[in-house]
Amino acid sequence: QVQLVESGGGSVQAGGSLRLSCVVSGLTLSSRCMAWFRQAPGKEREGVTAISSGGSTTYADSVKGRFTISKDYAKNTLYLQMNSLKTPDTAMYYCAAANFGAYCNLRGPPNEYDYNYWGQGTQVTVSS
Fold first, then answer.
1. Can you tell me the distance from the alpha carbon of 62 to that of 73, in angstroms, rounded to the nearest whole number?
2. CB-count burial class (<10 Å; 0-12, 13-18, 19+) for 82
3. pLDDT, tens digit, 9 for 90 and up, residues 9-67
4. Where does the chain show beta strands of DSSP type E?
5. Other CB atoms closer than 10 Å to residue 72's CB: what's the count?
6. β 57-59/46-51 pair status
7. 3 state SS of 45
8. Is 12 within 8 Å of 90 (Cβ atoms)?
9. Distance CA 120, CA 128 (A)
10. Do 51 and 69 form a contact (C-beta atoms < 8 A)?
11. C-alpha dihedral sign at 57, 62, 66, 70
């Protein structure tokens, strides 16, 4: 059974930092594309960043230079380091995994239709 469990969300003031974690079971990070998405109230879910099995990455323009995606193979855990947080970063953040062997499109922000497994989300709230 595949499970993705996010943690690390919380409330922070603008300019602050948070690190999100996504512990994965039932599949291995080393063999597939992984991503972070977010959804703010009243808005559609948007792709934030993705990382291929080989470690190549892509980011949405709104987070470039501030967010960093990484993974720990030994812990089978995906991370999202978020620095210089802004109020528009307030959202529920989800990690997602693509199917094994699926093409990892890194030509832009991740597309939710390319991902098959999802976590339950962790809330990030940034106040001014």
1. 27
2. buried
3. 999 999 999 999 999 999 998 889 999 999 999 999 999 999 999 999 999 999 999 99
4. 3-7, 10-13, 18-25, 34-39, 46-51, 57-59, 67-72, 77-82, 91-97, 117-118, 122-127
5. 12
6. antiparallel
7. coil
8. no
9. 26
10. yes
11. negative
Contact indicator for 20, 80 with CB cutoff of 8 Å:
yes
**pLDDT for the residue numbered 31:** 85
> How far is 116 from 65, CA to CA, in rounded Å?
27
Pairing of strands 67-72, 10-13: unpaired
Looking at the DSSP bridge assignments, the partners of residue 12 are 126
For residues 10, 13, 17, 22, the Cα torsion angle rounded to the nearest 10 degrees is 20
User: CA 127, CA 111: separation in Å to the nearest integer?
Assistant: 28
- The single residue listed with the structure tokens 């995994």 is 97
What is the residue whose two structure tokens read 């693509």?
A: 98
Q: What is the pLDDT of residue 60?
A: 98
